[in-house]
């Protein structure tokens, strides 16, 4: 197997590696050795456990990695670049120290914004990939997730961005708060999701009250698990959309993420008259890493 | 020691018992055997471990208990009463089954509201106690806590109420979310609290964005732990006040709770032109249980 270079998406919880020929994936591997489980000396061995079969003795293979691997708690810090700027700058890649002579590892830096204070790490690569997949795109990219991001793109630059804790709030509230009592199980009700979105958008200041209402309805009128989960998701996404209005209003919107969550965001945006295009998160990160690699070698 | 009756405040995490003569406390005891740690058969033994020294062989001592002990997961269910109604109704006390002949245990039911769906259990006793401490009070009672309550009182009845998950959200976000990284330690900055309150009240729909800003400022401009904790508290209390506006606007407000959290709410309300009176939560629950006991015996 001829491996040209290796693309790595290394977040807090997962490590994904791709053996590449140009922009094509020829093999891939994944482990749960995310940044959160590793100390500084653990990164190179964790990577080698995945990619060793792709390496050739006597040859140096380039590795380009994005995500939390470049944070202060990661393998080596790749300092944030300040917006407005292009999402990727090949000249700003930071070399990670290695012992194994068969690899040369470079880390993609994240982006920061001074006012309002914000940071991203990993999403800049997805944004670059989206620009590579949709050349000339101007508008807004929404990246739903644990920490959802909205980024305003113009002339190939990230002009501004904003992070929302929507995914983490859903996880905490549904698994660790009093609401968990009515959320054990499966199921989903679109109507409850839609009502949650509409409710949060109409009266966003009442979110704190609406949340406990899910528990109270479970106790006194038997709200189903499916309706409770969908309403919680709708309320939180609706609140995010209320705050992100300056981003999506009158803009071309692309949602970058996994199918399920992107579909929920698209559904909610549609009620606001916004027809979003969808790009798969995995495609975006690979396209971003490939674009970076291509520019480094250009 | 002459013990007339025993007052019990039994929540999810703590059990507090008071040996009473009329409305006066002659002894007290506390344990961490809250409802959350007990199964149905565990309640009577847990209570006896605390109150046995106050019991007399051959005599039946009355016990009046409020809080989660009366929930479906408690000792015995005391079904919710529907508002509008007086916070306490001696005729609605529910007897708990006991094996020990020295005690007769009665549980105070909570309150429910059909629309918007809401429930309380324990706070109804604090509200009754507040009315007993402030006879003739008409207005609004705010009970900050894990699940803050706002109740509208008129002519001795709870007309409506609303629960907010403010305290639980603070605990989850400061201890279990990404924000915890900037919140390990002590300290408090009043100015950061005030700014959080003002921010949330001015733009409540932006709370989801403001929260991650705490983390981002910690990363890129070194926000202190004291400022981060106080700002998070201010944002969450400000969001609660934004939603509770119909409760406090133009009303006489009494805050019932522990000194620290009540002080924060009073400070925030003062910026809105509301001068709240403070009642200690412990005083309120004891006064409520004593008022109940007095009416049962009348």
From TrEMBL, chains A, B:
<dbReference type="InterPro" id="IPR007729">
    <property type="entry name" value="DGOK"/>
</dbReference>
<protein>
    <submittedName>
        <fullName>2-keto-3-deoxy-galactonokinase</fullName>
    </submittedName>
</protein>
<dbReference type="InterPro" id="IPR042257">
    <property type="entry name" value="DGOK_C"/>
</dbReference>
<dbReference type="Pfam" id="PF05035">
    <property type="entry name" value="DGOK"/>
</dbReference>
<dbReference type="InterPro" id="IPR042258">
    <property type="entry name" value="DGOK_N"/>
</dbReference>
């Amino acid at each position: 197997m001829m491996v040209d270079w290796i693309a790595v998406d290394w977040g807090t919880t997962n490590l994904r590696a791709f053996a590449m020929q140009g922009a094509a994936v020829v093999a891939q591997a994944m482990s749960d050795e995310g940044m959160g489980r590793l100390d500084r000396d653990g990164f190179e061995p964790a990577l080698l456990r995945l990619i060793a079969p792709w390496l050739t003795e006597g040859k140096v293979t380039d590795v380009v990695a994005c995500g939390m691997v470049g944070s202060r708690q990661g393998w080596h810090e790749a300092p944030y670049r300040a917006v407005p700027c292009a999402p990727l700058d090949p000249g700003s890649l930071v070399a990670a120290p290695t012992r194994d002579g068969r690899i040369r590892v470079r880390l993609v830096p994240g982006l920061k914004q001074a006012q309002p204070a914000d940071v991203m790490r990993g999403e800049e690569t997805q944004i670059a990939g989206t620009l590579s997949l949709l050349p000339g795109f101007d508008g807004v990219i929404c990246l739903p997730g644990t920490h959802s991001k909205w980024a305003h793109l113009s002339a190939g630059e990230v002009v501004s961005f904003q992070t929302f804790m929507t995914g983490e709030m859903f996880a905490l509230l549904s698994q660790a708060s009093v609401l968990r009592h009515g959320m054990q199980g499966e199921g989903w009700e679109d109507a409850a999701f839609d009502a949650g979105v509409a409710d949060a958008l109409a009266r966003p200041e009442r979110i704190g009250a609406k949340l406990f209402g899910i528990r109270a309805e479970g106790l006194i009128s038997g709200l189903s698990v499916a309706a409770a989960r969908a309403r919680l998701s709708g309320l939180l996404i609706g609140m995010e959309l209320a705050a992100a209005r300056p981003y999506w209003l009158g803009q071309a919107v692309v949602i970058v993420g996994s199918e399920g969550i992107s579909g929920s965001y698209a559904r909610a945006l549609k009620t606001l008259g916004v027809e979003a295009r969808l790009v798969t998160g995995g495609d975006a990160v690979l396209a971003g890493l490939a674009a970076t690699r291509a520019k480094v070698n250009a």
